[in-house]
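Appendix B. Worked example

We walk through a single record from start to finish. Start with the input: the chain for Glycerol-3-phosphate dehydrogenase subunit C-like protein, Thauera chlorobenzoica, length 451.
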Amino acid sequence: MSKREGSLEAPRRHPIAWREDSYYDEGKVLEEMERVFGICHGCRRCVNLCNAFPTLFDLVDASSTMEIDGVAKKDYSKVVDQCYLCDICFMTKCPYVPPHEWDIDFPHLMLRAKAVKFRKGEVRFRDKLLTSTDALGKLAAIPVVAQTVNAANRNGVARGVLQSVLGVDRRRELPPYAPVRFRAKARLGATWPVRDGERTPGKVAIFSTCYINYNEPGIGHDLVAVLTHNEIPSVLVPQEACCGMPKLELGDLEGVDRLKRRNIPALAKLARGGYAILAPVPSCALMFKQELPLLYPDDKDVAAVAEAMFDPFEYFILRHRDGLLKTDFTRQLGKVAYHIPCHGRVQNVGQKTRETLQLIPGTEVATIERCAGHDGTWGVKTEYFEQSMKIGRPVFRQMAQAEPDFISSDCPIAGRHIQQGIRDSGTKLGATKAHPLTLLRMAYGLEEGAR
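Next comes the structure step. The output line below is what the pipeline stores for this chain.
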């Protein structure tokens, strides 16, 4: 019996020693990759999760020895490039994670390899640009610029140029940029009015995220409307930068550090002031809950923020269990095909979005718990677009088979990806794509407001 199988301990992760020189020792990284890849080859339990494992197993099976020692170490990078740090293998599949003696953390080993690659300067300009979400957003969200960028993203000729110059696949439907940012419309630092007779002592600070701020501000306004309806005082985080997840996925740990130093002081002040901090994009919540605490294990401010950080629906269910969430819904939603994104699943909070939507009378939720294959910037790249669509195909099929009135995902990028996948498959679907927060606002019968 393995140590994990014979132990009552939950899987645990080690702090990431990214500040130590040995972390970037390529020889040591390759040695550890050989050890872990050998164990993965003997297990193969994760073959259906993403393309990293099939790539590894194909390399082994095509080698002269049909073992990991027959694979050239220069080919290890092919596996690394296929990993987009979804964390599903660690959280749901691998039987050898700590406290097992084999001590496998595949995603964080891939992160280490990506960090070595980044430090060596082997990262394309495109990848650095795509992960600079604040810089792109601040430029593209200028009203006239936003209209021009959105028009170009719909133009075949312009997309052809973008593909040839930057390697952004012309077939990928890109999210639009909003001419008015969420943070501008929400009035920085304001407290939204609540109804008389406030019932809950809870108070919320909203970390809007780059995507909500620059691309789909309507989702943020939906969150504000739901909080206001539930008489929960809410404020906007006074200073906000990208959470750092795109830089983490690139292996740019110094970039993560710069963003951490911009975000954490303001967030820690709110956390210590008794605020629950809500991030309406799962990847952003995960960054503060898990990755930053592992990168900064001795930082008390980071720990305070992690403790105060919530997915919005995680927070709503906690309020409901305390009898503090209103259930005065006025609209039935019919059938909702709901996709749980990977970075929502690995937060270990359960299916809180599904639980919340099922509180709505006349609403049936068909839940799809599988990777959709987009992953932030990975699925927009020319070399990975086909693979992202292949990974997502089972999700597209299951969502369409549900014959829903709405298709929905906590990850707005995954939602767009699923919508495109269903449409590209030739399936005619009358369902409307709507974020779960939008669905909740609709069920309450609240006016749409600014979007």
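Two observations about the output. The longest helix spans residues 253-272. Residues 289 and 306 are 4 Å apart (CA to CA).
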